[in-house]
Write a structure and sequence with these properties.
homodimer; mainly alpha; Arc Repressor Mutant, subunit A; three-stranded antiparallel beta sheet; elongated; DNA-binding; transcription (chains A, B); DNA binding (chains A, B)
Chain lengths: 167, 167
DNA sequence: TCAAACTTTCAAAAAATATTGAAAGTTTAA
DNA sequence: TTAAACTTTCAATATTTTTTGAAAGTTTGA
């Protein structure tokens, strides 16, 4: 496989993976492109490489910056803005875990908690609702801890130990 | 909060969570409904509760069964089919982890492997592509192991130990 | 201050995805 | 074998999401 093939294969794979995880194609592809680009890219560059419009590029870059995985960079003497991705994949994972926890897991945990705390009126259906949402609540909290502590942190010795232990 | 409110809050939360993870609303809601239902439900029951069409119900039930988290059940003397969800949330998580690994992670790992093994022609861009896809490959493999071994298996002592260790 | 060089916004259009419902298919019991 | 009781399929439709592109906004340097 030649460089250009490998590159486009990677970008398109990342793009379709993204949609599978609720991230839109353009956003995932921009991220992929920046991740493998040795130099920061301008908006023009990105638009050209991925054949997407200026508006689309602008909006998705903003989202990637909100996620904390893409940064603006300024080249001296250049008016326009350049963008780079977080290049350390450990740090990338940590950031994504943190944001998904904040945006999805924590609100879910809150609701599972509310729902599982309704008054037990003694009926089967109420008992089942309480039982299952309690179980989900506990599981979600465990997941939250694992995402933030195991994947996260600079430490990472836990992950290494784990992988060794379990491989 | 009363039972009915709690129930519909749970179902709608699960539904919107689903869409965030690339699972459609109806599928996630059917799953939620079955999860908290003490009795197996018929297609009629589901259609009525969730206000969705027969076709939609049929297709999404089939998908849930493909995922291995919903089962057909037959009541004696009844012609129609009834459905239940996997009720053990540990087992549910295990099954979901296994399926996501198989459908998403493993194909991705394969492609990352292919891409990261292109010939190094000495250019910066090739070096960067190889470096980053190698790093992602390693990370994806670690994630795969964790999903299948840590969340999965009946063992689960690892998870418990981990949570205790890290909480 | 102006205007060139950019970026952002957002209404409209396009694309992707989910849903419906009726026809076709299947199973069962008599 | 038939017909009632169900389930599945799938083309058409509806809904949601993404993308576009041009106008509005911003920043900078002269």
């Amino acid at each position: 496989m030649k460089y250009d093939d490998a590159k486009s294969k990677f970008i398109s794979t990342w793009g379709s993976l993204g949609t599978l995880w609720g991230i839109n194609k353009a956003m995932a592809q921009i991220h992929a492109l920046l991740l493998i680009s040795p130099e920061p890219l301008s908006m023009e560059d990105i638009m050209e490489e991925l054949h997407i419009s200026r508006g689309n590029t602008s909006m998705n870059l903003r989202q990637l910056m909100d996620w904390g995985i893409v940064f603006k960079e300024n080249k001296i003497g250049e008016r326009k803005e350049f963008f780079t991705s977080e290049k350390d994949v450990q740090e990338l994972a940590r950031q994504i875990a943190k944001e998904r926890s904040r945006r999805e897991l924590q609100p879910t945990i809150k609701i599972l908690n509310d729902v599982s705390n309704i008054k037990d009126d003694g009926t089967d259906k109420t008992k089942e609702l309480i039982k299952q949402t309690k179980a989900l609540h506990e599981m979600a909290e465990t997941l939250d801890i694992m995402m933030n502590k195991v994947v996260g942190q600079g430490n990472n010795w836990i992950t290494k130990a784990l992988v060794k232990l379990v491989k």
